[in-house]
Amino acid sequence: MEAATRAQVPGLMPKHSAEASELNKLLASLKPYTEREPLAALLLGISSGFPYAMIGATLTTRLAQDGIDKKAITAFSLAFLMYNLKWLWAWLVDSARLPGSNRYGQRVMWMLLAGVLVIAAVVNLALVDPTASLQRTIVAALLVGIAGATFDIVIDAYRIETLKPEQLGVGSGMSQYGWRIGSAVAGALALLLALRVGWEVAYLACAAFALPAMLTALVLGEPKRRIVQPTPKDPGEWLKSIVAPMREFSVRQGAALILAFVLLHKIGDTLSQLTLRLLLNDLGYSNDEVAIYDVGIGFWAYLIGIFIGGAMYTRMGLRHAVLVSLVLMCLSNFSFAALAAHGHSNWGLAGAMLFENIASGIGGVTVVAYFSWLCDLRFTAAQFALISAASSVVGRIVTGTTAGALIESLGYVPFYLLTVVAAVPGIVLFLWMMKKDMVPDTRNTAQPKASTCSSAIDEQPRQTSIPTRQ
Q1: What is the pLDDT of residues 329-386, one digit of tens each?
Q2: Using a CB cutoff of 8 Å and minimum separation of 24, what contacts does 338-347 make?
Q3: In this predicted model, which residue has the larger pLDDT, 399 or 411?
Q4: Which of 95, 138, 274, 296 has the greatest number of CB atoms lying within 10 Å of its CB?
């Protein structure tokens, strides 16, 4: 009788039908994540993330355990500047054809070359002894930075050109999932192996994380959305290929304001992340505790943040999702100040990692989506390299040159409070950009009034990587 009544009354349906409908909605929402292109983005992200871990937190821990001075350790963060300088040679990935490009494709051959370079650089870093020669260790770290940055150039271009326009949100999320898996798993593996068999074996084992991207490129082949640029034939054409991506970006309306936001929005986040392992070492955390509470909990929290970021992108649109993520990343640095004030506490570390990594995961999806929206597909490698490199260059320079001295003179608590203040200018700039309608509202397909992606040198409407740009 109850089932009959439900069938007769508008707005009601049998319970099992409602459950089936919810299940179908869930399956439909998960389906995009199982498509070939987003899965490829996941594998690309894994390979992209591991070199960062090798010269980031992992190397910081290795040097701290070897008794290296804090100022020298924070100076190693300058190796990350290779990622910030990658735009200097990113144009080669768009223009230069390697042997085998006619058969396998230009992007594929660059992926294989960059992967081999990363493996060789990580093996070299494994074989140096920081206590015997700090100079050789610096050179080895710089080589990993150069090779990893080149790998990033190719991976970012391959990802953007492989994803279909409607897959951008899902693909950005999957790429961030992969990056976190690559960096966190490689970092945790290095810590655990170093404790048992030594740092040399740990680094050698982690070199295998370059393989997922290389195999993905071999299986999928050349991206279908790639806009092939003619290979330069003389010095004049080579110079033009270098200048064209930057010129296209520079003549856009609001280019200076966008560049200021890109340069400043991540200062506080970079300062806090690159110095965290120094704090944990001084608070007396063991390798196992760091692997469990920092890497382990941080890993799952970041994945949750990516999921939340994807949902925010869908419901709120790009501009509001980015704004919320910027505020959260700013506030998350309070957790490090609280941990420093409290002292050694596994629960405190777990809470700090939970807050920090959820905020970073949200920002990873939303901000990367915005950066992808800015790219002209004629210059994918060069422009994304320029934008992503600029996004952390200021923070890395400040970390490498002054962070150690600031920690020693101010202490950890004031230092992390200072990182909160350093994140505020980026929020203010983004609010200004929103007010000037320079950020797209992806909840509809309307063209922004003041398009940041229109160019005075474009003769035809350029292809973009955001589906709502028509």
Answers
A1: 999 888 888 998 988 888 988 898 899 989 988 888 888 878 877 877 778 778 888 8
A2: 339/279, 339/283, 340/279, 340/283, 340/411, 340/412, 340/413, 340/416, 341/413, 343/283, 344/283, 344/284, 344/285, 346/289, 346/293
A3: 411
A4: 274
